Structures are given as structure tokens and as C-alpha cells.
């Protein structure tokens, strides 16, 4: 079974989600629930640190698609950092870099909220 | 390989495909692409053909011929009509809050050839990738 894990941290006003493992149709609900909870609590400045993400399919990308509008409507954003090249490639193939801030590292992602 | 239609099986499917693609002599970038496309095709079967009903069969067959890998995936669910598929743009998806439709797009982008066959209650997707 696919393994996926989220660890949550804060840096001032920003919530950092460190994601690990494989994000597919089986594990996508885990990320979905986490994002839902953050939106409910109005924690909408979110950085997803993908340095531990080994795999993503379109089901994983769909989670970002589903919640980004809600988050932006609350003056928040999801910024995505530190993706491995093969994971970034999937985002890139579907045109995500034009819609999302996808940056080299977490520090840069956090800075963009200032 | 015969598996039961469940997202729990996706990791096993990916391992099966990646191991064989490596054995067939593909480089890691191609192994990743082929593996992703099989995941996407199976996920679509689980979601759309079988509408999340667990326990339905999916057959996956891999073959190497003339420097080309052929992946054949068979299910017995609702047929997919490729002519009705419209390529989504990310902007459209955002505005409609939809999250599906990308799997087929990835398959079309990453594989060399894709075809769908529907015969009675049997659906077959054939995808090929040159080495």
C-alpha cells in the first residue's frame, strides 16, 4: 500500500506541511483532510515542502486544484517548495507552474508571504 | 497481473510496472513515465469504470516487442469514450473546482501511442512506449 505522511510546523504566520512518500489516489485524501482543516481554522498561508515526496499522480495534483480557490479567496495561498525533479516534471507537464508559486526552497516560499 | 480494483493496489501496480520496464532496458525517466501512466489508467478504471466498487478485476499485461513496450489494461466496467474527452486547461479546472481529466492528458503526453477498445463488456486500453 502507498505510504504517505504529513508533518506540520509553523513559521510565524505560515503553516509548513512537510510531505513524505507517495501521493496518489489512495493517499490524496490524507492531504485533502489536512488542507480542509487548515481552511476551517483560517490558516491559509501554507507552504508545502515536497523534499520528501517521491511520487505524485494527477490524483495528488487534484487536491491542490480543489482547494486553492478557497484558500486564495481568504487572502491565502499554497506555495510549493523543494520538489524533486521527477515530481516537478508532473506539475510542469500539466501547466501548474503558471498557476502556483513553485519555488526552489522553503525559505523562499515563506519569504513570498511577507 | 490480475488485481482487484482498489486504490490500495496502486503501489503494487507501480512496482510491478517499474520492475518490468527496468528489465526491458528503459532508463529511469522512462520508467517513471510508464509507471505514472499505468497508475493513471488504473485510477481512472477504479474511479470511472467501476465507480469505486471494490473487488472488480483489472488485468495488466506488459510485453516488449521490436524495441517497444506495450501495456494492455483490461476492465469490465463502464466503457470510456475517448472522443468525449476534452483536454482541460488548469484555468478551467480551477474555475470549475474540478480535479479530474488530467490522467488521460498525462498518458497522451508521456506515451507514444494510446488506443481504447470496447467490446461488449470488456474495455481495453493499449499504450506503447519506445525504448
Protein described:
By secondary structure, chain A is an alpha/beta fold. Chain A has one domain (4-111): 2-Layer Sandwich (Transcription Regulator spoIIAA), CATH 3.30.750.24. Chain A has four helices and five strands. Chain A has helices at residues 28-40, 58-73, 85-93, 106-111; strands at residues 4-11, 14-23, 45-56, 77-81, 101-103. In chain A, strands 1-2-3-4-5 form a five-stranded mixed sheet, with helices on both faces. In chain A, strand 3, helix 2 (58-73) and strand 4 (77-81) form a beta-alpha-beta unit. In chain A, helix 1 (28-40) runs parallel beside helix 2. The longest helix of chain A has 16 residues, at 58-73. The mean pLDDT of chain A is 95. Chain B has 131 residues and is an alpha+beta fold. Chain B has a single domain (2-130), classed as Histidine kinase-like ATPase, C-terminal domain (Heat Shock Protein 90), CATH 3.30.565. Chain B has a five-stranded antiparallel sheet with strand order 1-2-3-5-4, with helices on one face. The two termini of chain B are 22 Å apart. The relative contact order of chain B is 0.20. The mean pLDDT of chain B is 91.
- The 3D shape of chain A can be described as globular
| Helix-residue proportion of chain B | 25-40%
Mean pLDDT of chain A: 95
What oligomeric state best describes the polypeptide chains here?
heterodimer
Question: CATH superfamily of chain B, please?
Answer: Histidine kinase-like ATPase, C-terminal domain
Placed side by side, the strands forming the largest sheet of chain A appear as 1-2-3-4-5
Briefly note the CATH topology name of chain A: Transcription Regulator spoIIAA
Cα-atom Rg of chain B, whole angstroms? 15 Å
Q: For the record, what is the CATH homologous superfamily label of chain A? A: STAS domain
Total strand count of chain B, please? 5
Tell me what portion of residues of chain B adopts beta-strand conformation.
25-35%
User: What percent strand of chain A?
Assistant: 25-35%
- Count up the helices of chain B: 4
Instruction: List the total number of helices of chain A.
Output: 4
